Amino acid sequence: QVRVVESGGGSVQPGGSLELSCTVFGEHLQVDVMAWYRQAPGKQRELVAQITSGRVRGLGESVKGRFAISKDSATNTATLTMDSLQIEDTAVYYCYVRIPNYFKTDYWGQGTQVTVSA
C-alpha cells in the first residue's frame, strides 16, 4: 500500500519563505515523477514544480526564480522550497507521485495549506 505524506506549509507574510516536503511510503517503489500542484479557491489545480528520476526539473511560469524542487531518492522525498512568497501563492498544495511499476500508478497527498497574507 502506498502512502503519500506531506508536511510543511502554514502562514507567512509576503516576501517570506516556506518549505514543503512530500515522502512516499511503500514496498518496491520505483518513483519516476514527484510533483507539487496547487489549487486556490475558485481556480483549477495547476502544476507548480516537478522532478523526475532523471533529475529533470520543471517549474510553473509564475514561480520561476522563486521556488525550487529537489528530491532525495534514498527516502523518496521531494522538497519544495518557496521564497519571495506572494499573496497569489496562497493555495492548497498537493503532492503528486507516479509509480510506474504499480498497477495503480498515480497517487496524491492530502494537501497542505499555504497562506500568504500581510
How would you describe this protein?
Strands 2, 4, 5, 6, 9, 10 and 11 form a seven-stranded mixed sheet that branches. Strand 5 (46-52) and strand 6 form a beta hairpin. The chain has strands at 3-8, 10-12, 18-25, 33-39, 46-52, 57-59, 67-72, 77-82, 91-98, 106-108, 112-116. 0% of the residues lie in helices and 53% in strands. It contains no helices and eleven strands. The protein is globular and about 45 Å long.
Structural class designation = mainly beta
- Beta fraction: over 45%
Query: Which geometry do the CA atoms define?
Result: globular
The topology string of helices and strands comes to EEEEEEEEEEE
What is the end-to-end distance? 41 Å
Instruction: Tell me the Rg in angstroms.
Output: 14 Å
Biggest beta sheet summary: 7 strands, mixed
- Give the helix tally: 0
- The counted number of beta strands is 11
Q: Provide mean pLDDT, rounded.
A: 94
* Uncertain regions spanning at least 5 consecutive residues: none
Helical fraction: under 10%
How does the SSE layout of this entry go?
Layout: E1 3-8, E2 10-12, E3 18-25, E4 33-39, E5 46-52, E6 57-59, E7 67-72, E8 77-82, E9 91-98, E10 106-108, E11 112-116
Parallel strand pairs: 2-11
Antiparallel strand pairs: 1-3, 3-8, 4-5, 4-9, 5-6, 7-8, 9-10, 9-11
